[in-house]
Amino acid sequence: MLDLLGRVSWSFFNIGVPVFAPIALLPLLSFSRFYRQASAGAAMRSVQDGQLLWGVISMCASACYEIGCGLSEASHDGARALMLTGLLWHVLLIIAASILVSFGAADSATLYTRPFDEKDSDRRLLWPSLFMTAISAASFSASHYSLT
Q: What's the pTM value of the predicted model, to 2 decimals?
């Protein structure tokens, strides 16, 4: 029972918080009179502009840290090679997510200087960010439970 509780709490704090907390907090903007108008659809706009990729970057950085800490304890060369492969995989995900999130930030900065219009929205980063978030969450979990 304690093992299950430990796994659930690890998943909540290391995957759930980076992915869902920013999206869950965006609707709080509607409580402010100043941001009430601008907050309509803020969660959807942030996801479609690739802002979930910030969570990908943080999860992959945590995975790199965990793998790096476990490298010295690798029992044989095969395990060390697998850990280095996992480390390289997460570094490549960090690089790809960083590039995509910079595109999304640049696009959103130019697009949202005027009032939001649904027909102006561009959802090119929506599916890649959702896919990369799922992949990084799965690979972070796999590296946590198998490599370290």
A: 0.81
